[in-house]
Amino acid sequence: MRFFMSRFEDETLALLRIMAGLMFAQHGAQKLLGAFGGMGDSGATAAPFTMMWVAGVLELVGGLLIALGLLTRPVAFLLSGQMAAAYFMAHFSQGFWPIQNGGELSALYCFLFLYLSARGPGRYSLDAVVFRKHMDADRRVPAGARY
């Protein structure tokens, strides 16, 4: 017997990808644009070409690309690595467990993006529209097959 939600796999993957991308992009908007209160109490933005600024660019641009489902696999892989680095650089020295060191969000994003890099963006994405013919030909999958 199939679980009743299994018929909504494509839709829930799209919702997960879109919401994760939009939420992730907000972190970049904080760092680059001072949105949502900016960085810290002062509402500051990251100085250009610093590590924090590069992180903001990856978060804002990468998050929007993930939400759109465009270049999802390589972008998600890159963002997964960014979040792993963020976890070990900013949190791990404060304790082993993410709940202890405040790194839950970094760890969760790391594994979510790793999953998206392996799974792909799904049917409801720009990747599915733009690269569909190339992907089907490369995989020798019939054109109507599930993405």
Report on this model:
By secondary structure, the protein is mainly α. The protein has one domain (4-139). The chain has 7 helices and no strands. The chain has helices spanning 9-33, 51-68, 72-91, 98-101, 104-119, 126-130, 132-139. Helix 1 (9-33) packs antiparallel against helix 2 (51-68) and helix 2 runs antiparallel to helix 3. The longest helix has 25 residues, at 9-33. The chain is globular and about 50 Å long. The model has no long low-confidence stretch (mean pLDDT 90).
Layout of secondary structure:
Blueprint: H1 9-33, H2 51-68, H3 72-91, H4 98-101, H5 104-119, H6 126-130, H7 132-139
Helix pairs in contact: 1-2, 2-3, 3-5
Q: In a few lines, what is going on in this structure?
A:
The chain is built from 7 helices and no strands. By secondary structure, the protein is mainly α.
Strands, count = 0
Distance between the termini: 24 Å
Into how many domains do the coordinates divide? 1
pLDDT < 50 stretches? none
Instruction: Give the rounded overall mean pLDDT.
Output: 90
Radius of gyration: 17 Å
Characteristics of this structure?
single chain; 147 residues; mainly alpha; 7 helices
